[in-house]
Specification:
- The protein is α+β, with helices and mostly antiparallel strands.
- Helix content is about 30%, strand content about 20%.
- α3 runs parallel beside α5, α3 crosses α11 and α5 runs antiparallel to α6.
- It starts with a helix and ends with a helix.
- It binds protoporphyrin IX containing FE.
- The site of protoporphyrin IX containing FE has 31 residues, from α3, β2, β3, β4 and α5.
Length: about 325
């Protein structure tokens, strides 16, 4: 049947495209957002993942070393205003902050550059990602959806984890912090810095707090449901919160396209600057609706690596945004 005739059939029989096109024929970005909706449920107006969050503001000031690695305006040393959103994992808007499922916690940053453009970083507290491809992430989510508490053992998720050792290994790297300000966040995906001479260097970001404080799982579970969301504005009443943005530098042979493999700890890490957070925005619930952070929203001097997740994430985030702002 030609495309035109198929369209007529669709209209005359009241069929929908979604009913005709099989799930596996949809773009992977859509399959991923649909799989998230399946695992977490659909909550109109909220993100498909990292639905619960809080929006804050501050600035970033680059170190002198940063400009040697990248010619991006972000690193010119002048204070760059930032909008930051901290979040809990999952698409469940009322997940208790101390739930094990609220790990990894997220930090999304929009740097407002002097030329009026923005550049984003979307990072979380996992040290590496459980899977390396969009298809594997979809399958992980679908396995979770098919593993309710009463599912026969081994559950689909247990089977998936057994055949993908990076899944349990990645989840073992996260635990609940006592504050969004006392957590480390990682870009996981690699990016490429280009400096003034054109030299290229693959990097992964590390956002390091003044101190890291993690709770024992039993203590985390006893915390009030909004303890992380409530603690940040309280803490900011007593002064700003600071993080050190660092770049871990790849050396020859380090994979930039496999986010399941952390680069060795002895790789050089360079301080790129200090991120200072001064205040939570007046109406965070309203502000977060209009915000879209994209890992691939970059600026001249910072480029995507060959990590396939970056483009897939951009597509999935944009789709989630369009669904939450119909
Ligand atoms: C294929 C892999 C991934 C997919 C499909 C995916 C998908 C999503 C989606 C659909 C959202 C909601 C976006 C919105 O409505 O604005 C989201 C949010 C988020 N994701 Fe991912 N994600 C992936 C990997 C990652 C990785 C590797 C990280 C961190 C290194 C990460 C960190 C976050 C954070 C922090 C948010 C919240 C952003 C915000 O505050 O607006 N994700 N993700």
């Amino acid at each position: 049947m030609g495309k035109h005739k198929l369209l007529v059939a669709v209209i005359s029989f009241g069929l929908t495209w979604a009913g005709i096109i099989k799930a596996e024929d949809q773009p992977i970005e859509q399959q991923l957002v649909d799989a998230m909706n399946k695992v977490f449920g659909v909550y109109p107006g909220f993100r498909a993942n990292h639905a619960k969050g809080i929006v804050a503001e501050g600035n970033f000031k680059a170190s002198p070393e940063a400009a040697g690695l990248s010619r991006a305006a972000l690193f010119n040393g002048s204070p760059i205003p930032v909008t930051v959103r901290f979040s809990d994992a999952t698409g469940i808007p009322n997940i208790p902050d101390g739930s094990a499922n609220a790990n990894p916690h997220g930090m999304a940053i929009k740097f407002h550059l002097p030329n009026g453009a923005d550049t984003d970083m979307v990072i979380n507290s996992l040290k590496f990602f459980p899977v390396a491809t969009g298809e594997d992430f979809r399958d992980l989510l679908l396995a979770l959806a098919e593993s309710p508490p009463n599912a026969p053992k081994p559950t689909k998720f247990e089977q998936f984890a057994a055949s993908h050792p990076s899944v349990p290994a990645a989840f073992a790297t996260v635990s609940t912090p006592d504050s969004f300000a006392d957590e480390e966040y990682y870009s996981i995906d690699a990016f490429v810095f280009v400096n003034a001479t054109g030299a290229r260097q693959a990097v992964r970001y590390q956002m390091i707090p003044e101190r890291v404080v993690h709770l024992a799982a039993a203590d985390a579970a006893k915390q009030p449901p909004n303890f992380l969301m409530d603690e940040l504005p309280e803490r900011l009443k007593h002064g700003p919160v600071t993080f050190h943005l660092r770049a871990q530098l790849a050396t020859a042979g380090d994979s930039t396209k496999d986010p399941t493999i952390a680069w060795p700890n002895d790789r050089k890490s360079v301080e790129l600057g200090v991120l200072t957070i001064d205040k939570v925005v007046a109406d965070s619930a309203e502000a977060e609706k209009k915000l879209l952070f994209l890992p691939g929203a970059l600026t001249e001097g910072i480029e995507k690596s060959d990590d396939p997740l970056i483009d897939i994430r951009d597509g999935a985030y944009a789709l989630s945004f369009s669904r939450r702002n119909p």
